[in-house]
Amino acid sequence: MKEIVILPAANCRRSQKVLAYLDENQVTYSRIDLETEKGQQIVADYELRSSPGILVDGVLVNPFDILEAPSCRVKEPIARQLFGLEEVS
After folding, report:
1. In terms of C-beta density within 10 A (0-12 exposed, 13-18 middle, 19 or more buried), how is residue 42 classed?
2. What pTM does this model have?
3. Which one in 14, 16, 41, 62 has a CA-CA gap of 20 to 30 Å to 70?
4. Residuewise pLDDT in 10s, the chain (89 residues)
5. Number of domains in the chain
6. Any idea what the CATH number is for the domain that residue 34 is in?
7. Strands 4-7 and 53-56
8. Is 70 part of any domain?
9. Given CA atoms 75, 55, 53, 60 in this order, what sign does their dihedral have?
């Protein structure tokens, strides 16, 4: 199982889309709001430049790699692989 940490920003459409996708697919993740002290420390540590912050097994993932612009639709094949939803053959 992958360790997934999501750092959503308040009122961020991309953050809402990623959280909804994870919830709909019953993916276990930790949530740390960007505005918290812990969230700000992670922002500094990883030089986070966009929201939501996405860490998968300690590696920062660019949210634009899994969301289409400007619709914010989740790129299903990429998201499934990233979040460990693909079956291993």
Report:
1. middle
2. 0.91
3. 41
4. 899 999 999 999 999 999 999 999 999 999 999 999 999 999 999 999 999 999 999 999 999 999 998 899 999 999 999 999 976 54
5. 1
6. 3.40.30.10
7. antiparallel
8. yes
9. negative
